[in-house]
Design brief:
The structure is a single chain. The protein has about 220 residues and is α+β, with helices and mostly antiparallel strands. The protein folds into two domains: about 70 residues; about 140 residues, 3-Layer(aba) Sandwich (D-Maltodextrin-Binding Protein, domain 2), CATH 3.40.190. The chain is built from eight helices and ten strands. Strands 4-1-5-10 form a four-stranded mixed β-sheet, with helices on both faces. Strand 2 and strand 3 form a beta hairpin. Helix 1 packs antiparallel against helix 2 and helix 2 runs antiparallel to helix 3.
Length: about 220
């Protein structure tokens, strides 16, 4: 019996250490303490078992759960762009929203979404430290971003393909002076979070591709 408990303790120890999600790590830690209580009882050490039950299984787990509930809030600044990031009343939708929401859920972040009128305002908010993440059709030249697009040079400004199409759908006359390759990006204040997001994109490639197909079809270009 003792050997079985020891093996289970080893298993839950590894779960607590290696789990990518904090909630599962806390569960592993609580299971480890509960098994330790059982083992101490079998080995004839009831005083140690009681101490472990109170401090390890109950108090420590409670502290971890409180800390998890009080997790950091990530402020996300976005400019509404059709298909990428849209707001309908209190609800959000779009490719970038679903992708970020999956990321925040996986790593136990709480998100607060802040809408801005333009991409320039979002970038200024990021520079001023008012938001932690900038998105909503933030684009640049080249293919270094997470999703390819086309950039159009207009008279006095540059716009991406989705904003270009939105103007066309509204019946605006849009005269382009040039067109070239570009891509969309997420910009982060915190470099550690940026690195974590890059790892997330690699690990969740299948989800990313299914999301891209959902919003942009087979070609997958916005």
């Amino acid at each position: 019996m003792e050997y079985v408990i020891a093996i289970l303790m080893l298993f839950f120890s590894m779960q607590a250490i290696l789990s990518g999600q904090k909630a599962y790590a806390i569960l592993g830690r609580a299971s480890l303490s509960s098994l330790a209580v059982l083992l101490y009882s079998i080995l004839g050490a009831p005083d140690v078992a009681i101490t472990e039950a109170l401090l390890g299984a109950l108090l420590t787990t409670l502290i971890y759960l409180i800390a998890l509930k009080a997790r950091n809030t990530v402020k996300v600044g976005f400019s509404p762009v059709r298909l990428l990031f849209e707001r309908h009343g209190k609800h959000f939708m779009g490719f970038e929203y679903e992708l970020l929401n999956r990321f925040f859920e996986k790593y136990d972040f709480e998100a607060k979404y802040l809408a801005f009128a333009s991409m320039e305002e979002v970038l200024k908010a990021l520079r001023d430290g008012k938001v932690d993440v900038a998105c909503g059709g933030v684009f640049e030249e080249g293919k270094d971003g997470y999703l390819e697009t086309r950039i159009f040079q207009l008279d006095g400004e540059k716009i991406d393909l989705l904003r270009y199409l939105e103007r066309v759908y509204k019946g605006e006359r849009v005269e382009t002076l040039g067109e070239y390759e570009g891509s969309y990006r997420f910009l982060f204040q915190d470099k550690e979070m940026e690195s974590l997001f890059k790892d997330f994109l690699r690990e969740e490639r299948e989800f990313f591709e299914s999301l891209k197909k959902k919003y942009f079809g087979e070609e997958g270009e916005a």
